[in-house]
């Protein structure tokens, strides 16, 4: 959305400059014609204003194209970062489930170690009783 707003603002600026140039040219041309100043000068002024309009239109089109390409590049980079994050980071719920699984395994191993130690103690006691 922001690139549309920027393009609209730039269009308004260039359009305003074009209108101002046309008004100035028309004012001078009208004044010169009423005073009898050579029509050739007025035609040259109109030609220059038209050339200025073309240059401004070309500059505006180039600016819009460059800005559009920039915003598309930024959008693509953001998409790449989102995909990388999706592929390389673990979701909180998945992480919690994995930690809970580790905790269950540790509790199970602890109870198994306790049972094995109890068996070893019984065997040690039997060996001590023999001697």
What does this structure look like?
This protein is an all-alpha fold and 131 residues long. It has 2 domains: 1-89; 91-131. Helix content is 94%, strand content 0%. The protein has helices at 2-35, 39-88, 92-130. Helix 1 runs antiparallel to helix 2. The model has no long low-confidence stretch (mean pLDDT 80).
Question: How many angstroms does the end-to-end distance come to?
Answer: 90 Å
Give the SSE order as H and E letters.
Answer: HHH
The helix content is: over 70%
Q: What is the subunit arrangement here? A: single chain
CA radius of gyration: 41 Å
Instruction: Indicate the overall shape.
Output: rod-shaped
Name the structural class: mainly alpha
Mean pLDDT: 80
The total count of strands amounts to 0
Q: Give the number of helices.
A: 3
Report low-confidence residues grouped into runs of 5 or more.
none
**Strand count, sense and closure of the main sheet?**
none
Share of residues in strands: under 5%
